[in-house]
Amino acid sequence: MVNDNSKMDEINRLKSPLKYNDYKVYDSHGNEVKSVETFSDLKYVMEPDSNILSDDEILEYAPHSKEASKVRLKRGVGNNSDVMLVNDSLPWIIGLYYMILICISIPVIYGGNRLSMFLILILVILPLIYLYYIFNLKQYEDKSSKKLINKSRFSNSTISEIKTDEGLQSLKKYAEEVEELKIIFESKEIAVRKLIEKRFEPPQITYDRFISAIDKSHELFYHEANGALNITKLAVEDTPRVENELENKISILKSIIDQIEDLTNELVININSDGKSEDVKTLVDDMENLIDSVKEYK
After folding, report:
1. How many Cβ atoms from other residues are within 10 Å of residue 156's Cβ?
2. Contact indicator for 195, 271 with CB cutoff of 8 Å
3. H helices of 76-113, where?
4. Residue-wise pLDDT tens for the chain (298 aa)?
5. Which of 131, 108, 130, 110 is closest to 119 using CA atoms?
6. CB atoms within 10 A of CB 20
């Protein structure tokens, strides 16, 4: 059984900012954080210890990690970006493979040997078959898992979510709505973080403020979401007070999502702007005010 102190230590590590020193990146424990590089992006993401944290905790505290991608794929909510993150070295391997194959193919083609050309054709096709296989999202799903999710990426799609046997039947609708909102928030959070990185390249004060606001929104969202789910599981009686508290928490979740969506839209509009958009700054102010008001309410 995992020690609670070990779990808290791991969570604090994941929540702590990265440290940059001599062109290397380290976590709060002094461990070097390896970069994840694709053709269009380079980022540093701390990987959680899957032996310490549960799948839900990995999604909450390290949503952009490889382990989180594995969890999403296993649960059936992953996408091609998750596949690429899990197989981040694949583009470079395939690129090198085809470069070598081209070098081998040139003398074969000029030689006109049909058998050799046929073998080259097979070698060309093999990686494509493998790519088709790894991008088949169904193969990653854990068929024995009780948590099977079938979802679309955006809020205007129909989402069927996790069903559990815990709690009162009359409160299940709230639990299902919270789970749907968690999926929506996750996709919007990923999108806004990418836009912030494009609009305000780190390190700079503006970038730090925007990311800090998103980090606080993430923490607040999951605090309220987990609080609502705990109520649906532990409540022994369905009373107006219980329902009011659940509705209040769901309202907070929706407000956070709306703030993220508004900020995303404004960043898209101003992505190529040289100046500093007052609308963008106002939205960040609104987000920070929302966070502060909820904390004061609590």
Report:
1. 7
2. yes
3. 80-86, 90-111
4. 456 677 788 888 887 777 777 778 888 778 887 776 655 556 777 888 878 888 888 888 888 888 888 888 887 777 887 888 888 888 888 889 999 989 988 887 777 778 888 888 899 999 889 888 888 877 776 654 444 344 433 344 443 344 444 567 888 889 899 999 999 988 888 888 887 777 776 556 667 778 888 888 888 899 899 988 888 888 878 888 888 999 999 999 999 998 888 888 777 776 555 445 566 667 667 777 766 666 554 5
5. 108
6. 13
Task: Count CB-CB contacts under 10 A for residue 293.
Answer: 12
Burial 71-80 (b: 16+ CB within 10 A, else e): bbbbbbbbee
The pair of structure tokens assigned to 112 is 């006109």
Distance CA(69)–CA(198), nearest Å, equals 22
How far from each other are the two terminal CA atoms of the chain, in whole angstroms? 32
Backbone phi and psi for residue 266, each to the nearest 5 degrees, phi listed first: -70, -40
CA distances from 90 to 66, 95, 189, 194 (A): 14, 8, 26, 22
Contacts of 9 (CB under 8 A, 6+ apart): none
Cβ(38)–Cβ(91) below 8 Å:
yes
What is the distance between the alpha carbons of residues 154 and 166, in angstroms, rounded to a whole number?
A: 28
CA 219 to chain CA centroid, nearest Å:
14
The pairing of beta strand 35-37 with beta strand 42-44: antiparallel
Q: How far is CA 290 from CA 45, 253, 294, in A?
A: 28, 11, 6
CB 17 within 8 A of CB 26: no
Beta strands in the chain (DSSP E): 19-21, 24-26, 35-37, 42-44
